[in-house]
Amino acid sequence: MSEHTVSTQPIEGQRPGTSGLRAKVKTFQQPNYLENFVQAVFDSIGDISGQTLVLGGDGRFYNREAIQTILKMAAANGFAKVLVGQGGILSTPAASCVIRKYQAFGGLILSASHNPAGPDEDFGIKYNIGNGGPAPENVTEAIYARTLNITAYQILDCADINLDEKGKFSMGDMQVEVIDAVADYAALMQELFDFDAIRSLFTQDFSFAFDAMHAVTGPYAKVIFEGLLKAPHGTVMNGEPKDDFAGGHPDPNLTYAHELVDILYGEDAPDFGAASDGDGDRNMILGNHFFVTPSDSLAVMAANATLIPAYKKGIAGVARSMPTSGAADRVADVLGIDCFETPTGWKFFGNLMDAGKVTLCGEESFGTGSDHVREKDGLWAVLFWLNILAVRQESVEGVLADHWVTYGRNFYSRHDYEGVDSAAATQVLQNVRDQFDSLKGQTLAGRVVQMCDDFAYTDPIDGSVSENQGVRVLFEDGSRIIFRLSGTGTSGATIRIYLESYEPDTAKHGLDAQEALADMIDAANHISKLPELTGRDKPTVIT
Ligand code: VG1
Ligand code: CO
Q1: Which ligand is nearest to the CA of 414?
Q2: How confident is the model at residue 2 (pLDDT cuts 50, 70, 90)?
Q3: Cα separations (Å) of 105 from 127, 135, 352, 483?
Q4: Which of 366, 379, 488 for a ligand 1 pocket mutation test, highest count of atoms within 8 Å of Cβ?
Q5: Which of 223, 236, 366, 495 lies at a C-alpha separation of 20 to 30 Å from 538?
Q6: Range 362-385 average pLDDT
Q7: Is the alpha carbon torsion for 252, 218, 321, 319 positive or negative?
C-alpha cells in the first residue's frame, strides 16, 4: 500500500453552483475530473490531518466508484477517519445529521439531487462544513480558485473497501467506518416529533401515500413510516432505490411526481400524500385533491410549530429564500419574530441558524427544514405535517383554508423554462434590467410598480455580500415578479419566473393560482420578451 502524488492540470468549469458541482457522469468520468475537485476541496478547507470526514450519496450511477476514489484520497490527505453510509448511501439531511452528531470536520455528499441519473445523466458533489450545512460562498469560491491552479493530487494505492458491510476497516493509517445509513437520522426524528400521536393517526381512518421515486428516501421512509410508525405496508411507493432512479426524474412536484399526484387526485384518494427527491432534501405535500405550495407549507409550519414537541417553546425566527412567497412573513409578523430573506440556496441559512436567529427555513423549490440539521429535509417536513394532522385532526385542505382566513393568501407560482439557449436566457433577464427605470411607477397587470432591482444580500452575521441573486419587479401592493437563471442544471439554461400576488379577500381564496396570476404571467412575458426570444409559448414545468 503506497501513497501516490499524481500530477494533474486544472480543468475548467469546476465552479460549484447553487448546490455543489454538477455535471454529466461522462464529464465526471474524465481522467482527473473528480480527483481534481476533491483535492481542491481538501486543499481549501483548513488543516484536515487527524480529522473525521463524512461521506455518502444518493446512490445514483457512479456513486460507488466515486466513494472508493474519495476514500483513497482522504487517506492520502491525512484524514484519521471517514464515516461512510452503508452501500455508499446517505441522504443529504442524513449526512448533515451525521456530520453534526459525530462532530466531523465536514462531509462530501455525492448527489445531483433530482437531476436524472444513469451513465448518460448527471452526477454531483458538494462539500458541507462542520455545522453540517453546505459550504458558504467564500469556501466554494476558494475551492473553485484551487481547481484553477491545481497541479497534483494525493491518492493511496490500495484495495477497495466493501461498502455493503457495516463495521470498521483500515485504509493505510485511516479508519473507514461503514455506518447504518438510516439509524442516526431515524433516532433524530424520534427526538423531534410525537411518534405516539402519529402512530395513533395511522390506527384511525387516515390513509397516506409516500412516493420515494426510486431514490434515496426509500429505505429511510420504510424504516420510519412503515417500521417505527406502523403505517400499513405499501404506504411507501417506489421505495427501492435504483442507480438510475428507474429512468425517472425524482423531483417532487406536480409534473414529475405525477404517479403520486394521480393517486391523490383520483377516486378514493388518500388523506395525505408526500414525495421526496433524489437526495431526500425536498418534499411535496398533498392532501385529498389538494396541493400545498412549498411557500404555504413553510408558513403553516411556522404557525403550527408549537404543536410539535421539538418546537413547543416557539421558534426564534424564520428565513425564506427571496423568490419564496411572503406567506411566512405574515406569520412571523403575527408571532412577533424575525423573518429573513436570503438568496436562493440552503447555504445562506446556515449562519442564521448557527447564530440562533432562525429555527425554520424554507424555499419555494420544495425545500423546508429547521435547525435540527443544516440542510433542507424532506422526511422531516412530512413528519412535521403528519404531527400537525395528528394533533389538529383536520384535513390538509382544512388546515390551509383556516390558515388563509387568518393570514390571507399569497397566490404563488413558479414557471420554469428548461433547456433554453443560454444567450437567449441571459437576454430575457437583461430586457427586464434595461427597463428598471422606465417600469417604476408604471401600471402592469393592474398594479403599480414600486421598484425594480437585482437582488443583493448582505449576510447579517458575517457581512458577506452576494450580488445578482435575481431580477425583481416589486409592486406597491406587495405583488412580485422575479426572474432568475438556475444554478443547478448541467445543459443549456433554465429560466425561472416566480409570480406572487397577495389576496386578503377570503371569497377569492378558492381560485386556481394560475387563474389568479394570469395577468401577472402576461406582464412577465411582455416585459421580458421571453416568448419571442426563446420560441416557447409555455413553461416546461409549472409549480
Ligand atoms: C434549485 C432551487 C433552489 C435549491 C437548489 C438545490 O436551484 O431553485 O431553491 O436550493 O435547487 O436544491 P436553482 O439554482 O436551480 O434554482 V437540490 O434539492 O437540487 O440540492
Ligand atoms: Co435535493
Answers
A1: 1
A2: confident
A3: 11, 12, 20, 37
A4: 488
A5: 366
A6: 98
A7: positive
The structural domains of the chain, with segments of one domain joined by +, span 2-181, 185-407, 409-542
As residues whose CB is below 5 A from the ion ligand 2, the structure lists 113, 277, 279, 281-282
- What's the pLDDT at 231? 97
| Residue 289 pLDDT exceeds 70 | yes
Q: Count other C-beta atoms under 10 Å from residue 65's C-beta.
A: 16
The residue assigned the cell 419571442 is 532
Buried b (16+ CB within 10 A) or exposed e, 443-473: ebbebebbebeebebebeeeeeebeebbbbb
Q: How confident is the model at residue 311 (pLDDT cuts 50, 70, 90)?
A: very high
Asked which of 98-112, 219-233, 476-490 is least confident by mean pLDDT, the reply is 476-490
What is the whole-number distance in angstroms between the Cα of residue 378 and the centre of ligand 2?
Answer: 9
Burial of 244 by CB count in 10 Å (0-12 exposed, 13-18 middle, 19+ buried)? middle
Res. 385: pLDDT tops 90: yes
- For ligand 1, what atom is nearest to the CA of residue 17? 14
Closest CA to 139 of 310, 20, 28: 20
Ligand 1 pocket, residue 344 CB under 6 Å:
yes
**Average pLDDT, integer, range 105-117:** 96
- Protein residue with its CA nearest to atom 3 in ligand 1: 345
Q: Which amino acid is at 87?
A: G
| pLDDT beyond 90 at 369 | yes
Shortest CA distance to 186 belongs to which of 386, 380, 384? 380
Domains 2-181 and 409-542 share a fold: no
CATH annotation of 185-407: 3.40.120.10
Record the cell numbers describing residue 543, joined without a space: 409549480
CB atoms within 10 A of CB 326: 22
Least confidently predicted of 1-15, 104-118, 139-153, 378-392: 1-15
pLDDT for the residue 1:
62
Please give the grid coordinates belonging to residue 452.
425594480
Whether 295 is catalytic = no
Angle at 321 between CA 382 and CA 446, to 5 degrees: 110
CATH number of 2-181: 3.40.120.10
- Can you give the pTM of this predicted structure? 0.95
Contacts of 299 (CB under 8 A, 6+ apart): 327, 328, 330, 331, 403, 407, 410
Ligand 1 atom with minimal separation from the 321 CA: 9
H helices within 235-326, ranges in order? Answer: 258-264, 294-304
Whether pLDDT at 489 is above 90: no
Helix (H/G/I), strand (E/B), else coil: 352: helix
